Amino acid sequence: MPDNAESGARVANREGFAARIPRDAIAGAGVLVFCVAVYLVTLTFKEAPAVIAQNVQPATFPRMVLVVMAVLAGIIIFQSFRTRDKPKKPLKPMVWLSAMVMPGFVIAFYLLGILPAMILLCFFLPLLWGERRFRIIVPYSIVFPAAIYLLFVTVLKVHFEPSPLAFW
Amino acid sequence: MDTFLAAASEFSDPFMIFVILAGTVGGVLVGAMPGLSSTMATALLLPFTMTMEPIPAIALLSTLYCAGTFGGSITAILVNAPGAPPAAATAFDGYPLAQQGRAGLALGIATVSSTIGGIFSIIVLIVAAPMLARVAYDFGPPEYFALALFGLSMLASISGESAFKNLLGGAFGVLLATIGMDFTTGVDRFTFGFYELTEGVHFIPVMIGLFAGAEFLTQANSLDRVTVRAVLEAVKLPRWADFRKTLGTVARSCGIGAFIGLLPAEGGTVAAMIGYNEAKRWAKDKSLFGKGDIRGIAGPETANNAATGAAMVPTLALGIPGSATTAVILAALLVHGLRPGPHLFNETPTLLYGIFIAMLLANLMFMGLGLLGAKLFARVTLIPTRFLWPAVFILACIGSYALNQSIMDVWIMVIAGIGGFFLKRYGFSAAPIIMGLILGELVESSLKQSLIIFDHNWLRFFERPIVVVFVLLTVLSMAMPLIGGYRARLRAKMPPSADIPGD
């Protein structure tokens, strides 16, 4: 176990109760919870007739993998108390906003169609990221989506589903 | 010989030359751009190749792979920001040399070493792939199971924070591979009522998410980063004295890179790190390492390029990817209806020779491009992040969609991207998850078939000599990081003057 000074250094950028637990221990515990949850899901799998399954039911292999994962997570938790955490820079709010943009784009893709979704992303994401040169943003948000759309639709023959809101 | 001539005749078509040139230029550009890697680029490019004939499609991805591995060195030397992970070790001595006003020499060494390593790896590919394919004719399900297990165990020693995290990532990938209908019983697993998941999770959206999606968020976290660029006047060819100084390092790194590349799941990044360490270890005068020693550039650059062709050997001969990028090439082969393995060598030899020739041409082309156009390629770092990454994200989404024309694949990419970003923060690498996902189906199917063959008697696995060899290799590969960790701890406890025997 590291001494107190090391423990303090380990969690320089965390506070309170969390500061006493190594980061890897938290990750390992998360994996264990995940394994338990997924194991419970495997209990809902249908049983196959023995003649088809040949003693290997659909849940057998996933459960074996989950056991391996749980053992590895246990080792990671054990190891985490023997090593020091490297201090990590906290995440900037922009990461969370950008992470929300990702599913937002897929929803726009589904609801509005690919071309409007691309135009919106190319216009608003640079703005969100601090770009203010509209003389670049405006042509970028028109030319790039149009080029990509033409390439995929006309050259690569990719079919994009019409959006449910494509009345306009 | 007839097959070789037939493959060579494909390259008399101007379109093929265009494909090789586009792949090489694109690869160098992508490799040079920090954050973009050849793995990500091949994954993004895969949908574009679906409408192409198999030879140009695979040639394009292979050339992109070769050139992308080299391209990372340009920004590693000029900007101290490796364009791709395999070039990380190049920055240790490349950037200090550039700061001394000798960026041209550093790039010249990197270009020539990369070309030598790349051409050596193609020779290894031409010699070793058919040999391995012949051996693979004797493989049955138990051998494939042991081989896949060995491939997964190799994850313990690939780069990353911890061997156990890599293994856990691999196991998670295998678990992802169980999503969908169980192929023996027809029972749905983890589909949660989504019929799109019945056929399972394709690894391309997961790969695009883990690489491009996660990097998109990484870039969002570093928008205020300022890049300091070293001045580059002209790229210089190494003088004879420089060449003589690096000759031993280059020869050693050729062997290291080719060996590492041949191992399943290992790739250029590991080869480059070992190439750098060995260059330093064998040097009589180590004082300049880290301050601008040309051997510190030649070592990793030769090794990472020597791993490229070698990594294609297990991919083509066994269907086990030698690296993350070759996993995409493997997927491209499958998309075009080609099953990697021994039969590929009998049924489509023209394609194989086509890949060999394309990779050879790519190496020669990037040597020319590197010597003449490095200054130009380095300017890709001037593309503002605020415009580049929205474009990459759009390509990631459309690339994921185009594979099966399914919005579910786009969701999978987004989930993998966000998940991959947080996994990376906790020290989990993307490559093991991809490897697990690719090998998962092989592990499960070969295990089930083996158990049926052996009447559920696990001990009968050890009646097969090839299985025993792979099991021993698996134990060894998993033990190596533990032994390494023990030795490192022992070394840390010893006084500075003490030496560990065998070091």
Summary?
The complex is a heterodimer of chains A (168) and B (503). With 168 residues, chain A is mainly α. Chain A is 65% helix and 0% strand.
List the helices and strands and how they pair.
The complex is a heterodimer of chains A (168) and B (503).
Chain A: H1 4-10, H2 23-42, H3 50-53, H4 60-80, H5 93-112, H6 114-128, H7 134-155
Helix pairs in contact in A: 2-4, 5-6, 6-7
Chain B: H1 2-10, H2 14-32, H3 38-49, H4 54-78, H5 90-99, H6 103-136, H7 141-153, H8 163-177, E1 180-181, E2 188-189, H9 203-220, H10 240-262, H11 268-282, H12 295-318, H13 324-335, H14 342-347, H15 349-377, H16 385-404, H17 407-425, H18 430-453, H19 465-493
Antiparallel strand pairs in B: 1-2
Helix pairs in contact in B: 1-15, 2-4, 2-15, 3-4, 3-9, 3-13, 3-16, 4-5, 4-6, 4-12, 4-13, 4-15, 5-6, 5-12, 6-10, 6-12, 6-15, 7-18, 7-19, 8-18, 9-16, 9-17, 9-18, 10-11, 10-12, 11-12, 12-13, 16-17
Q: Which short descriptors sum up this protein?
A:
heterodimer, A: 168 residues, mainly alpha, 2 domains, B: 503 residues, two-stranded antiparallel ribbon
Tally of discrete structural domains of chain A = 2
If helices are DSSP runs of H or I spanning 4 or more residues, what is the number of helices of chain A? 7
The overall pLDDT of chain A, averaged over residues, is 85
Helical/strand content category of chain A: mainly alpha
Catalogue the unreliable spans of chain B: 496-503
Shape by Cα distribution of chain B: globular
Main structural class of chain B: mainly alpha
Distance between the termini of chain A: 66 Å
Largest interface, counted with CB-CB under 8 A? A-B, 66 and 59 residues
Question: Topology as H/E string of chain A?
Answer: HHHHHHH
The biggest beta sheet of chain B reads: 2 strands, antiparallel
Give the N-terminus to C-terminus distance of chain B in angstroms: 48 Å
Q: How many E-type strands of chain B?
A: 2
N-to-C SSE series of chain B? HHHHHHHHEEHHHHHHHHHHH
The residue-averaged pLDDT of chain B reads 84
Largest sheet of chain A: none
**Outline of chain A, from the CA principal axes?**
flat
Which percent range describes the beta-strand content of chain B? under 5%
Query: How many domains would you count in the coordinates of chain B?
Result: 1
The oligomeric state of the chains shown is heterodimer
Number of strands of chain A: 0
